[in-house]
Design a protein that fits this description.
Helix content: under 10%
CATH topology of the largest domain: Jelly Rolls
Mean pLDDT: 85
Number of helices: 0
Number of strands: 12
Structural class: mainly beta
Distance between the termini: 63 Å
Largest sheet: 4 strands, antiparallel
Strand order of the largest sheet: 5-12-7-10
Low-confidence stretches: none
Order of helices and strands: EEEEEEEEEEEE
Number of domains: 2
Strand content: 25-35%
CATH class of the largest domain: Mainly Beta
Length: 151
């Protein structure tokens, strides 16, 4: 039996820096690096994925594109929860607040007051939902609902 261990590579060709610096031609770093102060990079530099002291990946998924808000009327026919007749482009969040009664929401326009989930008058329900999904609303009578979408 031959011993092949002497011909097996013990390293790879990755030359990326875990501590930041010039971008590598090949990088295979997996994992993250905790820094009490975030690194400051210049164009063309790279750094390891930043994590907090508990190992959670840091990100900055914030609203920074557009906000759409206003009132819609919700009645006995299901309507989409959006302000301008279409979901906000790149939407990340949706807030729904009925102002004068209970509404019900569901994931399709087949939602009813029997199978939908209630949102009570003055209660705000938030959804982390993209623009490709629609929340539908219905009520037992005509009600005013405040809608807020952010992207």
């Amino acid at each position: 039996m031959s011993d092949y261990s002497s011909s097996l590579p013990t390293s790879d060709k990755a030359d990326g820096s875990a501590s930041g610096g010039t971008a590598a031609s090949s990088s295979i770093l997996v994992g993250g690096e905790y820094n009490s102060t975030a690194p400051s990079l210049s164009n063309g530099q790279q750094a390891a994925v930043q994590i907090d002291s508990s190992g959670r990946i840091l990100n900055s998924d914030i609203l920074n594109n557009s906000i759409s808000s206003g009132n819609i009327t919700v009645g006995t026919t299901a309507v989409a929860a959006n302000v301008n007749g279409t979901n906000l482009s790149n939407r990340k969040t949706l807030f729904v607040t009925p102002t004068n009664g209970t509404i019900y929401f569901g994931a399709s326009n087949a939602v009813t007051t029997s199978n939908g989930t209630p949102i009570y008058q003055g209660q705000t329900r938030s959804f982390s939902i993209g623009p490709n999904l629609t929340i539908y609303l219905i009520a037992a009578s005509s009600l005013t609902v405040n809608i807020f979408e952010g992207s």
